[in-house]
Design goal:
The complex is a heterodimer. By secondary structure, chain A is mostly beta strands. Helix content of chain A is 0%, strand content 49%. Chain A is built from no helices and 10 strands. By secondary structure, chain B is an all-beta fold. Classes of the chains: A mainly beta, B mainly beta. The interface between A and B is medium-sized, with 27 and 34 residues.
Chain lengths: 146, 156
């Protein structure tokens, strides 16, 4: 076993509120970007943990999704994993929420090329684009695993 | 016998067995079961315990109760067998605290999230089978599950 079998884990988090989301259909990156550049280990497997705080202030059942996508080499590289809502967190449409609900979720990205850096970028969207979803925090952690 | 991989001890590849992951987006609709069932397709992983005898288990699910007239709740959790399920050597049963549940009635959409726990006391080098199962509290046929996933990672 060598040190390169386990490159350093990465973490990024931001508490800048993403307010009144009107973006739906396609995912957006948000501002500031929350992302990590993670070198793949010899196994080609990287554990991903996503967390976010979401609320819906309106009297309509709007939902928000926070997940991630992965590009090879950097944000402008080839897309190797598109955004998949079930690997992130999603609110369930509770209405008139004054407080944020904080949640996390996990996934495993496999078959990456060992030694190559991959850019894991947090993205979000609302389901209906009603402009009533807020996101209080976004974070991502990546850990190389055997 | 488990080993805590103390500082200075030589680390071997076998100390960290492979991480495994399995998931499905096949919806389990209108669930009436009040005892745990496997679901279709079965979501499960086979893993080998590392030298430490400890693994992290991450369970993910998307659930909802889309009926506004009852407070039925769904639970998604997991159990672990030593060897194969046919051997019936169950070492950990389902526990709602180790899984996911839906938060409210009348939810138009699924809420996705995850939960993690550590399982220890496993025998190093032995194969185990972790299986996702689900149930409802009231069996009102209003709880749906859109996503089930399980990941097992060896930890020191």
């Amino acid at each position: 076993m060598y040190g390169q079998d386990f490159p350093p884990s990465q973490f990024d988090q931001d508490w800048t509120q993403q307010a009144d989301l009107a973006q739906f259909g396609t995912f957006s990156v948000g501002s500031p970007e929350v992302a990590v550049l993670q070198v793949a280990p010899r196994s080609g497997k990287i554990f991903v943990a996503i967390a976010a705080g979401i609320r819906n202030q309106a009297a309509s059942p709007e939902r928000g999704e926070v997940t991630f996508h992965v590009h090879r080499d950097g944000p402008d590289g080839i897309l190797v994993q598109s955004a998949f809502a079930a690997w992130g967190v999603k609110s369930n449409g509770v209405q008139l929420a004054s407080q944020f609900q904080y949640m996390g979720n996990f996934s495993l990205i496999e078959d990456l090329d060992p030694g190559v850096a991959y850019h894991f970028q947090v993205v979000h969207r609302s389901v209906a684009g009603q402009g009533t979803i807020d996101i209080a925090s976004r974070s991502i952690m990546t850990i190389p695993v055997p | 016998m488990t080993d805590n991989l103390a500082a200075g001890r030589r680390v071997k590849a076998v100390d960290f067995t492979r991480a495994v992951f399995n998931y499905s987006q096949t919806t389990q609709a209108n669930i009436a079961d009040t005892t745990y069932v496997v679901g279709d397709p079965e979501i499960a992983v086979r893993f080998m315990a590392p030298t430490s005898g400890r693994v992290g288990v991450m369970l993910s699910a998307g659930l909802r109760n889309n009926d506004a007239t009852n407070e039925d709740r769904g639970f998604v959790s997991f159990r672990i067998f030593e060897g194969d399920p046919v051997d019936a050597n169950l070492i950990q049963t389902e526990d709602a605290k180790n899984g996911r549940s839906n938060p409210a009635q009348g939810a138009d959409d699924y809420q996705y999230g995850g939960q993690m726990t550590m399982v220890d006391g496993l025998t190093p080098g032995v194969w185990y089978f972790a299986q996702v199962r689900h149930r409802t509290t009231l069996g009102m046929s209003d709880v749906d599950i859109a996503y089930r996933g399980i990941m097992v990672i060896p930890v020191p």
